[in-house]
Known about the structure:
Keywords: 2Fe-2S, Iron, Iron-sulfur, Membrane, Metal-binding, Oxidoreductase, Transmembrane, Transmembrane helix. It is found in: Membrane. Belongs to the cholesterol 7-desaturase family. The chain has helices spanning about 5-40, 45-65, 85-95, 230-235, 255-260, 260-265, 275-280, 285, 375-395, 410-420, 430-435, and strands at about 65-70, 110-115, 125-130, 135-140, 145-150, 165, 170, 180, 185-190, 205, 205-210, 210-215, 240-245, 290-300, 305-315, 320, 325-330, 335-340, 345-355, 360-370. It is globular. Helix content is about 30%, strand content about 30%. The chain has three domains: about 5-60; about 70-100 and about 230-425, Naphthalene 1,2-dioxygenase Alpha Subunit, Chain A, domain 1; about 110-215, Rieske [2Fe-2S] iron-sulphur domain (Rieske Iron-sulfur Protein, 3-layer Sandwich). The longest helix is centred in the first third of the chain and has 40 residues, at about 5-40. It is of the alpha+beta class. Fe (ii) ion binds near residues 257, 263, 267, 268 and 390.
Amino acid sequence: MAIKDLIENENNCQNTKVNELYLSSHLTYGVLCSIFEFVFKHFKVAFFVFIFFLFIYILYKSYWSPVFYAKELSEVGFNHIPKGKDRCLNIIRAQKGRRFGSKLPPPYPNGWFALVESRDLVVGGVVAIDALGLNLCVYRGEDETARVVDAYCPHLGANLAIGGNVCGNCIECPFHQWKFGEDGQCVSIPHTETVPKGISIKTYPSMEIDGTVWVWYDAEGRPPLWTVEDSDETKNWGYRGRNEFLVNAHIQEIPENGADVAHLNAVHNVSLLTDVGYKYPFLNNIIGCHNWSAEWSKGEMDHLAQIKIAHQYIIMKFDVFPINVTVHQIGPAHVRLRFHSPLGPMTIIQSVTPIAPLVQKVVHRVYTPRYNAILGAALVLMEAYQFARDVAIWNNKRYVSSPVYVKNDKTIRTFRSWFSQFYSEQSVSLKDALQNPLDW
Ligand code: FES
Ligand SMILES: [Fe+2]
């Protein structure tokens, strides 16, 4: 056969394939339309009832039942581990085999850290929290103030947070019912008239803002170096829900993401609605994709920094959903993200709490005005889908202490020098922190 014939034959084959593809997609479309027509014709009432209840459900989730979305340590970033009987073991193997890098900064910077959401700590409630290499007991007295104390009773070492009771503003040990007052001093011992002097538990400075109880952690034992006013949004707007992730990384990696401007269009470009754009980039034109520009800068006070982000959602070259975000970083572990969208404002409160030297609990809590509740509820999920893309990288990366910086990375360098203010002479090293049995 001549070459010309071969080429013609090849072209015919290709044309046939294209025709087949066209026919099959046409057929699929036709079948879908027929199904829809059939359902609409014969189940019209059921269809409208379904839409009605879906609408009611969305309203219910938006206004009365805040959305909750959570991902554990092994759930994000392990798609490369094949399915099968031993998948869990293989994930653990991947986690254990990971190299975290060298010269990691101390794992617990100085600052305010979120311990428990206010709504989860009722009057008389007690919550046990293990974080920052400490075992803490958080309780709310009858004066409605949340307090944070060391969990261990000085008598025989029972954990006050496990079975302890709140009496007035005191915490009572579950083992022999010794009571400790607001200042940590022992105020009562059953069957003992005079309490010996000098028996006390350690108390920690705490504050309750942004719908959360925070503890002040300082390696030098200093009182809080800054305080934070409650935000207007958390006081006046409605709470729409939260998403939370456990992340296997050093705490510094999380806020560094905001200064890493270049990653935005690499990691967060594909539509949050579906990951299909990664595999078939041409679909991004139809489904839409995100376009970001951002600027990180130090704030007016030492412990503050801010990021200005401009976001576009592009479909066929049109920006269909522009959003501007102003991000305020307050210390090492507290962020307020204020969204200005065509459908109204929204605010996310982010907190990062090291529950082990290299395990962070990251929580995002969403607030919006009442009229904007549906968008707020959706934001809980939309933000979670975008954040999961960062988590997949954090859960597998290693820390690089001296990166090769290019021009776009200059804010990463500035960020690292800014963040170093939260470490101090007595900051526990990673090596020492890893000796702590809290690490697992
Ligand atoms: S251990 Fe707490 S009262 Fe005895
Ligand atoms: Fe990111």
